[in-house]
Amino acid sequence: MEIRILSVGDVVGEPGLRYLKKNLFQLRRTHQIDFCVVNGENASMVGMTPDQGEEILMAGADAVTLGNHTWNRREICRLLDEDERVLRPANFAPQLPGSGLGIYDTDFGSLAVINLVGRCGMDFNADNPFTKVDALLKKCQGMPVLVDFHAEATSEKLAMGFYLDGKVSAVWGTHTHVPTADLRILPHGTGYISDLGMTGPMNSALGVDPRQSIAMFRGELTSRFEPAPGPRWLCGAIFTIDVETGRCTDVEQVILKEQQ
Ligand SMILES: [Fe+2]
Ligand SMILES: [Fe+2]
After folding, report:
1. How many CB atoms lie within 10 A of CB 9?
2. 150 is catalytic
3. Of the N and C termini of the chain, which has fewer Cβ atoms inside 10 Å?
4. What local confidence, expressed as pLDDT, does residue 72 receive?
């Protein structure tokens, strides 16, 4: 039996959240999606509130992943404790709330989702994601495993893809907010893309109003980042997975654009 997984890149601000809510159910129907994972770490620009997490789930996500901005919204701890569909990177310190591994009972059997954060170019200390994932994989043998690797460097993401090739069904990158064109099936059957991209304002620098981003890079005084106005896009990928073997048989990019 084959299943189809939709993964959606970082939802940015209210515009991203509203665009996701407007389109996700239809997207699921059109592409016959069995399971959907959405990265929500920028729903409040930096971090995600519990209400926003619940909205993403209501919009049609089966699991919500986070990233380096997880603790910018401390109130998320409540949802991380209450709802196992909401994950934070597994390689954060173990005493922190929440989990980075979710194992879900579905119509097609058990399915695991792992959320990890990279260490290259990130301004905090996280445990080694490569050794952390080894420990997590022992808990999810015999089921398809999906990995959201929230990282900056394409080198680190590619290394993770090849490290997990043949051990998991899919590895996708999030965090850069720019979709990459390198989606493929790796030699041992793992579906891979370096970055899904983002869901939110198209005419923006990573979702932020370009005027603010330009001011920052010009060294001027900047105000709190606001989402850019204008048309939005939703970026993601669809992985088709053979449940018996756990192998990915197809990867397809999804970029849904609003009219200018
Ligand atoms: Fe991020
Ligand atoms: Fe992000």
Report:
1. 32
2. no
3. C
4. 95
